[in-house]
What does this fold into?
Amino acid sequence: MNSTITHKDLTDEVVASFQEATFGEATLNREKAIQFLKKNGLPSTKHEEYRFAPITKSLERNFTWRNEVSPSSIKSIDEFLIPSLDAYVLVFVNGAYSTNLSVVNNLPGGVKVKTLSEAFEHEKEIIDQYFDKLVASEADSFAALNSAFWQEGIFIHVPENISVEKPLLILHINDAHQTQVIAHTRILAVIENNSSLNVIEKFDSIGNNPVFNTLSEEFVVGEHASLEYCKTQNDDRLHQVANTVIHQSNSSQVNTFTLTLQGKVIRNNFNITIDGEHCESHFYGLYLLNGSTLADNHTVVDHRKANSFSNELYKGIMDGNSKGVFNGKIFVRPHAQKTNAFQSNRNIIISDSATVNTKPQLEIWADDVKCSHGCTTGQLDEEAMFYLRSRGISESIAKAMLLYAFAADVLTPIKNEALKSYLDGLIAERLHTHF
Amino acid sequence: MLTIKNLQAKVAEKQILNGIDLKVNAGEVHAIMGPNGSGKSTLASVLSGREDFEVTEGSIDFKGKNLLELSPEDRAREGIFMAFQYPVEIPGVSTINFMKTALNQIREYRGLPSLDAVSFLQLMKERMNLVEIDQSLLSRALNEGFSGGEKKRNEIFQMAMLEPRLAILDETDSGLDIDALRIVANGVNKLRNKNNAIIVVTHYQRLLDYIVPDFVHVLYNGKIVKSGTKDLALELEAKGYDWIKNEVAVA
It folds into this structure.
């Protein structure tokens, strides 16, 4: 199954650095992961799953492999916050959790938010149950890389019957003023039955050296529980591979939104296992790319039980020399009768040198299901352009109006008003300033 | 206001207009009639600046400006409005935002300040009543899911908002039942005044019962082959186009 073509030099460097490092927690998982990496190496573009994402090559070219945390002089997080968003704020700087900069007071009763290293000490039972169980560290080399090298992480536990009203804003700040940054972060969130959680992740970097981040996150969503999840990638220094895995139980609800605006090479592996009946899930994504950004969204929606609903909509606008990639797999297992699973990927290319590669894959073993998928790639609708212009609207504004209308549609499932208005502003700004 | 001289145009290498001469003054309503494929919609498209059409000969002067040199948006800003035969559905763009943007772009071109939200809404309300269109339609995405009649009514609403000097109604009657036709025609009539002009492109006489033209022109093979008063439209309705085609053949 793993036909990884090894980039020998970088893999050797990575493996060698593992021997020199000392890790406090999860040493067994780390050993296993490095063995996987040793065997399979980092993927080149000959690897089927990384065909359009030359991330390994870019890493070889731009980074020197090191394990230590890069120095940072960040004193304030104000510029990275989302305006008017009332949230608990968790801050990583160069992959290390910053207790000083984080603000996590007055959590609802019984809710735990702590670093993974603390959790390894005090929450052994639940850690043993869930940590590193969902993420594909024995199938994907970057997941393995993260499992081997993660520096710090967050453990979130919402006990039964608790609704965490305020969102948890997780800031991943990278300070590349002095040196390059390589950061590996992790999140484990367990939302017990009848509870809810809203997580927002944001990536920013400052300074001119390259930044590479791997992120592995596991979300366990209990029965009748709900998760709202939003990730914004708007950082022009960033090389990133994010592995996000969500596990849903009966009658749970999940809404996700992934927005990619900037970055060098961005790869999102997004896996949802719908392991319960009567679940409802909406997975939305938007990539508005320009410059030479490459954004690759690989999603897997795995229906394992009957009577659940999933709806996936990813849209992209590619400008400049950017490259968009979408690969969406839907599995409907033999017992997952009466599944409703929908997937749609729509792209607009507005420059001659931009490209998109899109591939929907449905594998359905159950026979009583409703599934559909579709993908479209095109330019702006010329009839619509002419209609707007014939009313006195300039070509550039007409273009921006149509692109904005196309893009903003995916904000529909976002409920938090401050977040929605922030994201809407980012989209509007991007589409107006460039056209 | 509008002077078309020897206008010749082609689309995709097919010659459609073969020398049109037409003069339209302020305060006049001209009807352009003719059989299918005679070039009526091509003429409307060329006037509004559709880029698929290539003008090979002739000139169009609008208020002293060479219309052919203007972009579609500048034509609109100069005061040309085309009511589309097939108005486009644009999901995600509300009619209200669309109209506000259009109106303010036109005002900017004319050196006028932008309308603030309050004055805009006031104007909109007034014009909505004029053309009998419901606010609920305008809050929706532009033409999305509108019936044929609602789309045409929205065209006339836009015309009412933008107050063009020259409006071209391209087969506005197509797809309308008699009630919708009456509402649309009433809207147009209320907008008629001595400072503006209207070109009505239509197949049928019935629209002209409501929007009474000062002149009727028959287009055939890309040329105006006959002009007259509103009586000509009645004659066409009674006799069809064959006698005109025969006249042309004899000539």
Notes: Residues 8-275 of chain A form one domain. The mean pLDDT of chain A is 93.
